Amino acid sequence: MKVKCTIIIINHTQSVMCKDCLKEICPNRGNVCLETGSYLLNYSGCASCKSLSFILIKEKNVAEEENGDETVTYNHTCNECGHLIASHEYTFTLDEEFQEYSMNCALCGYGSDTVSILPDDPREKQLF
Ligand SMILES: [Zn+2]
Ligand SMILES: [Zn+2]
Ligand SMILES: [Zn+2]
């Protein structure tokens, strides 16, 4: 599964991120998918209050479908002034054979990973 960064497209209609706080908008993270936390290396400091303090996780929401699919969304906000830095989306989908993870966030970037739920996944042997 190929995931494209949709944040930039979304941002034309709604404010989901602040490019002034970021070093790079939606970097490609390969198969890195964060279910929580912040990618601090991409944070250049709050453009609103000029402080480089902690990033808070706000309004975390986990939506679970009946078929086991999961979507986690939350906002990255400035600890000092509450400025919204970026909105984060993480999805987990369960296929018959695979678990798919994907992440989309202007701060943390985008990535996707697929893990076989079968015990003898030939790709896993290549990895280790
Ligand atoms: Zn900002
Ligand atoms: Zn701030
Ligand atoms: Zn994020």
From TrEMBL:
It comes from the Eukaryota. Pfam families: Churchill. InterPro entries: Churchill_sf, Transcrpt_activator_Churchill. Keywords: Activator, Developmental protein, Metal-binding, Transcription, Transcription regulation, Zinc. GO terms for biological process: fibroblast growth factor receptor signaling pathway; positive regulation of DNA-templated transcription. Gene3D superfamilies: Transcription activator, Churchill. The keyword Manganese does not apply. GO terms for molecular function: zinc ion binding. Belongs to the Churchill family. This is Protein Churchill.
